[in-house]
Every structure is written in structure tokens, then in C-alpha cells.
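Fold it.
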Amino acid sequence: MALEVNGKTLELDGNGNLVNPNDWDEDVAKALAAADDTMSELTQEHMDVLNYLRDQAAKVRTYSLANLPDLLEQLEQTLQANGIQVHWAENGAEANQIGAVVEFLTGELPDVVLAPSTHLGSAGITDV
């Protein structure tokens, strides 16, 4: 799916959402609303709410990325406190190997394999 806005073709997923969130602006929001038959025209009040939510989401993202090591340790502690074994991996390939070995040895896939990347770009995170 695609959406044409101000001479630019923007890619949409199967649910009609932007594939690239960096394509979003107020004109795109209005075009998305117009393309949705359940939505009426966006008012300034709607835009204020959308801008507030986007600002809050950006703050959460920034905080999460800045505190990722601590947050992952908290996740590990919470999972372990609930009886879930956590396996750490250096990257996605190692996580797959751990999963395969645990499945081979136990006949079950592991509960959780965490593979935090020291290179955010390899996790698809490119604009911090």
C-alpha cells in the first residue's frame, strides 16, 4: 500500500500505517485520516493530541535507549523472579544458536534469549 502526499509516495503497511515513521508530518496525518473511512477531518485539537503523544513517545524512546543496560538487567531480574530462565547472547545469530542448543537438550525452546546490541544500528535503531 502507498499514500501520495505533497508529491511524495509514502509506503504503508497492511494496516494502513506508515512503514517509515520519519515520514510523518501534519499533512501526512491529515491524508491518513482522509483515507480512513472511519475518521473525520482532523481538527487542531486532534493535531495537538497527536503532537503531544508523539513527543511523549520520543521521550520514552530516548530514556529507554539511554538506560538500556539497566532496563535489560531489571527485565532479567523480573523474569527470573517469575521462574523464567534468561539466556544472554551477543547478537541475533548467537541467540539463535542458544535457542537451538536449549531445544536440542531439553526438547523445548528457551523461555527468553536476550541479545542486546552494543551497535544500535544492527538492531534497526539508527536515529537516537
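The CA atoms of residues 117 and 124 lie 10 Å apart.
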